[in-house]
Design goal:
By secondary structure, this protein is mostly beta strands. It contains 2 helices and 17 strands.
Length: 342
């Protein structure tokens, strides 16, 4: 037995020594030039800078506005007198989905869909058809959108965004028609100078102010240090950002929202188009709950930018104005749960 153990031990040590010699020999003859030059790999700009809030893939939220007045609403059928109506609240659900279709270093292409509705409750029942219809059915918007981020190299990039929305005060699905459709789009050329700074310039066709307009666009996202940064896409929105951590972010800024809504009425044309735009100065808080689930809470002021009711699609002509209303400006609150990108 002793002789057997001695033979086995000797054999084991001989194999270990042989392995060590073999590894040493292999290491000496490796040709590192076969791995190529790392500096020759082409790099591309990414779509984000450090410390920004993550992109939302799925978002489900609820928005609530406090009491406000709607003055200057005409009576029917002669529009000879005007009334002021008092809304107790305006509230509704908001949902959106943005799914990456292609995502690699050379291009990021996303497709999305969105839906939101605003139901308004007035203090007293009304025999005014415009107010009664608005209260019964609310304003609804549903649409699809696409975004393409195309890096050209490590520094330059292009962004293309387009959306098509159906907006209106619909009594049923039969009311949905092509006059409720609005088309928007944005194109930006930009520079990413570092992982903390990117900016660009472009042009947009948008209904955010209620009427269709074509405006220049400025993009500038910058992280100053571990806590402070800013995210601008003017004139649509701008925020100053404070990072308590990468998963706990506070923002102060504004967003301009709006669109044109179709509505059937007993007006002379049998239909009107509500051009609604609103500016929202606000505070936003984004907090990671667990994994890829984040909470977003925002509160601020809903400032009435435009509430013009026109007799013609996309009209700006004064003689086609059915009426306009200087809505008073309530506080608002919004909360949403979001499934975000890694």
């Amino acid at each position: 037995m002793y002789r057997f153990l001695l033979i086995c031990t000797s054999f084991l040590f001989s194999q270990i020594s042989l392995a060590q010699v073999t590894d040493s020999t292999d290491e000496e003859v490796i040709d590192y030039s076969s791995f190529g030059d790392a500096g020759g790999v082409k790099r591309y700009a990414t779509q984000k800078i450090i410390n920004q809030a993550p992109n939302r893939i799925v978002s489900i939220g609820y928005e609530y506005l406090g009491a406000f007045d709607m003055p200057n609403v005409p009576t029917y059928p002669d529009n000879s007198t005007r009334q002021t109506f008092n809304a107790q609240r305006l509230s509704g659900m908001r949902a959106q989905v943005n799914i990456p279709i292609v995502s690699n270093t050379k291009i990021i292409w996303q497709m999305g869909a969105n839906y939101w509705m605003s139901g308004v409750n007035f203090k007293a029942p009304s025999n005014n058809d415009f107010i009664a219809t608005l209260q019964s059915y609310g304003m609804q918007s549903a649409g699809i959108n696409t975004t393409i981020f195309k890096p050209l190299n490590e520094k330059n990039f292009l962004i293309f965004q387009g959306s098509a929305d159906i907006n209106g005060v619909f009594k049923n699905f039969k009311d949905i028609n092509s006059k409720a459709l609005t088309i928007s789009g944005t194109a930006i050329y930009g520079w990413k100078t570092s992982d903390r700074n990117m900016f660009g310039f472009g042009v947009a066709r948008t209904y955010r102010a209620g009427q269709v307009i074509h405006v220049p666009v400025v993009l500038w996202n910058k992280t100053f240090n571990d806590h402070w940064g800013m995210d601008l896409l003017l004139p649509a929105r701008a925020h100053l950002r404070y990072n308590f951590s990468t998963s706990n972010i506070l923002q102060l800024g504004f967003e301009l929202e709006g669109n044109q809504f179709w509505m059937r009425t007993p007006s002379p044309n049998g239909e009107v188009f509500i051009q609604r735009g609103e500016l929202k100065p606000r505070i936003m808080w984004d907090k990671k709950i667990t994994g890829f689930i984040w909470l977003n809470v925002q509160t601020g002021l809903r400032y009435n930018w435009r509430f013009d009711v026109m007799n013609q699609y996309n009209s700006r002509k004064e003689d086609l104005l059915f009426f306009n209303s200087k809505l008073t400006n309530p506080l608002y609150f919004n909360i949403s749960l979001n499934f975000v990108s890694p």
